[in-house]
Amino acid sequence: MQSAQPTGTNMQNLDTPALIVDVNVLRENISRMQRLADSFGVRLRPHAKTHKSPQLARLQTGAGARGVTVAKVGEAEVMADGGLDDILIANQVVGVEKVRRLIDLSRRVRLAVLVDSREGVQLLERAFGDAGATLDVLIEIDTGKGRCGLSADAEIKELAEAVRDSASLRLRGVETHEGHVPAGSTSSVQMEERAVAAGRRVVEVAAMLRSRGHSVEEISVGSTPAAPWTASVAGVTEMRPGTYVFNDVNQMAIDQATPDTCALSVLATVISRPAVNRAVVDAGSKSLFSEPARRGFALEGYEGFGYIRQAQMARVVSLSEEHGVVEVTADAGFPVIGEQVEIIPNHVCPAVNLHDELYIVDGDDVIDVWPISARGKVR
Amino acid sequence: MQSAQPTGTNMQNLDTPALIVDVNVLRENISRMQRLADSFGVRLRPHAKTHKSPQLARLQTGAGARGVTVAKVGEAEVMADGGLDDILIANQVVGVEKVRRLIDLSRRVRLAVLVDSREGVQLLERAFGDAGATLDVLIEIDTGKGRCGLSADAEIKELAEAVRDSASLRLRGVETHEGHVPAGSTSSVQMEERAVAAGRRVVEVAAMLRSRGHSVEEISVGSTPAAPWTASVAGVTEMRPGTYVFNDVNQMAIDQATPDTCALSVLATVISRPAVNRAVVDAGSKSLFSEPARRGFALEGYEGFGYIRQAQMARVVSLSEEHGVVEVTADAGFPVIGEQVEIIPNHVCPAVNLHDELYIVDGDDVIDVWPISARGKVR
Predict the structure, then answer these.
(1) Mind telling me how many Å the CA of A268 is from chain B's nearest CA?
(2) Which of A117, A346, B227, B237 fits a 20 to 30 Å CA distance from A62?
(3) How far apart are CA B16 and CA B281, in angstroms?
């Protein structure tokens, strides 16, 4: 058995790799996003995919967030078990077993899912009808991401009518994930333009549906990179950013975070110094994930597979599963075997999904250990 | 709770995403590698990082493999608990807590770890000495990978002497991971040259150490892509391939596998058809991992983020955490919502690490479910 270290220990006694979360940075990140949502007059429904922890979600609701967003039924079950009672599954739910679990969940919490097809609507309608249960749905609108969601007005209208014709479904509103906002962005001005355009498009869709007699109480937008702008569009009612709670190199690469506002690091140990310019740490793609950093306009200095706090001129140049290869320059000093370093992941959400617990630290003290209860809940 | 499906069901009843393993392809892959090792007259010590399952490791030892290779102490613990009694941790083990666990393990199974530094040797020597225990070590030789391992003869000699001077450590031999063999390879001829050169180099190092009075009983080489060649070098005693047990797109990209010799797929469901040329499945980077396919000489047709068995002209063009976006061409047919597809991952090892169980199938029947017991054992 891997032993769980007791709280009250110094961080340097932790076995590595380990996810450490600075509780003060975390709390400030939570407050800052809540203030932004309040300033727009919209409800904040954070995406729990970043932390996968009911404890952390309760910090967010305690600070004013309304419920939580998840991507999978399994994540919703974990959040419901952890006391969250207002859950949006921001995904299409397809499959007999998943819908059975969805029906169970709908009797326990305020629940909604996304739809973007007649087939999806029929599947939910029939199963919930047979069970004598009801479900709220939001129509997903593609505002440029090119993933799920409808874009043509005619198709959106048809789908809204299909929901209205269903006895077991209720149209709560419209939803978009403006995940395209940071993609290849060349400036924050460009990001703002894309983010505002996405917000205007969903508000326009909502107006179109209302003009046809549909009730659209929720106009929900998502994504941390777009958060400063999309929800500022008049009419938007809800925002669902996730990454802000920890931040990561991707956020640094678009100038929305600094190392000081990143709450989570992977604590790693130098295990080998095979050459003067090379150190190897015990955190690889199975601890940091393997995404290259987002190509953002402020990327400079953040290339590589993670940002090392202790040696800013040392770069994680490659990862294999259990090894991070660090190119060491003269400026970086010469890390010795046994030394610990803290590495900010490029994309924090999938990195968290690789681990079983978060070590909560205040300064150098480990003050708590939270299980990442929704890790691996891909169904 | 996510429910575990009972065995005896048809594969199409599985909730998705799910890892499915074709038991017949698996058994043939295991036999083929054992025959290769036997033909070289070397012992096979498969790397369990690919499957992380003691059940599967026992199939390998049952077919003739000698023990098992792992990368982490936590993986070694799982394998020992699962009945494997001869374990090589092919990694440097650094850290107080890890070495404490290593001592416990050394009392339960035949155990060895790698060393490539004086500091690493001293750390093990002291802890094992204090505990009155002993440990076998292999010196890691860098034959071109550029990760851990020593390359200069002088440093190798010095380290061997440090091990000889230690009362609690015993030099079992030398080791290399020739992971550079497939990197950017332009032909199998180039791979063969690199693989044989790596084998010759470790044999040469062993000879050098023997000439200085060191006992070198094991000359251990690794990696599936190099397997057809490195262990053919006279003197090599042990090979440690991992990926062969399942194979993957990376192996297809260097002409060492075909879809028919890939034993593992990620079973996924089409959840959205937002455009004529786009389908979205419920398996993203949290099920398939996010590595692009290896740049191999036989890559053509295997680009993208996984190979779809049912629709060979449809490509997984992008992944987000829970979504796989499939570009659909006319040739691919038009997958409907609810349809299942089987996707071979680009790199199977980290994909397996994202899941909790393997569904073992024979034809369309689920005949067993094996827990991926060493998933996430990164310490």
Answers:
(1) 10
(2) A346
(3) 10
Domains of chain A by residue range: 23-245, 254-346
- Segment A361-375, tens digit of pLDDT: 999 999 999 999 999
Smallest CA-to-CA distance from B60 within B195, B239, B199, B230 is with B239
Q: Which tokens go with A166?
A: 């269903």
Q: Could you list the pLDDT tens digit for every one of the 379 residues in chain A?
A: 344 556 788 999 999 999 999 999 999 999 999 999 999 999 999 999 999 999 999 999 999 999 999 999 999 999 999 999 999 999 999 999 999 999 999 999 999 999 999 999 999 999 999 999 999 999 999 999 999 999 999 999 999 999 999 999 999 999 999 999 999 899 999 999 999 999 999 999 999 999 999 999 999 999 999 999 999 999 999 999 999 999 999 999 999 999 999 999 999 999 999 998 999 999 999 999 998 888 889 988 888 999 999 876 688 999 999 999 999 887 767 789 999 999 999 999 999 999 999 999 999 999 999 999 999 999 9
Say yes or no: A129 contacts chain B, CB-CB below 8 A: no
User: pLDDT of B82-114, one tens digit each?
Assistant: 999 999 999 999 999 999 999 999 999 999 999
Closest CA to A88 of A64, A65, A111, A118: A111
Residues of A with Cβ-Cβ distance to B283 under 8 angstroms: 378
Residues 311-370 of A with CB under 8 A from B: 318, 320-323, 325, 336-338, 349-350, 353-356
Cβ-defined contact of B71 to A142 (cutoff 8 Å)? no
Fold of B23-245: TIM Barrel (3.20.20)
| Tokens found for residue A201 | 């498009």
Q: Output the CA angle B92-B98-B101, nearest 5 degrees.
A: 120
| CB within 8 Å: A271 and B15 | no
The alpha-carbon radius of gyration of chain B (Å, integer) is: 22
- Three-state DSSP at B232 gives helix
Confirm or reject contact between A371 and chain B (CB < 8 A): no
Contact indicator for B176, B210 with CB cutoff of 8 Å: no
Cβ–Cβ contact B2 with A under 8 A: yes
Of B101, B116, B337, the CB nearest to A94: B337
Q: Which fold has domain A254-346?
A: Lyase, Ornithine Decarboxylase; Chain A, domain 1 (2.40.37)
Find, among A278, A279, A285, the residue nearest to A341 by Cα: A279
Cβ(A325)–Cβ(A317) below 8 Å:
yes
Omega into A17 within 30° of 0, i.e. cis? yes
Tokens of A56: 């952390």
User: Touching check for B260 and chain A: CB below 8 Å?
Assistant: no
CATH class of B255-346: mainly beta
Tell me which residues of chain A, numbers 50 to 79, contact chain B at a CB-CB cutoff of 8 Å: 71-72, 74, 77
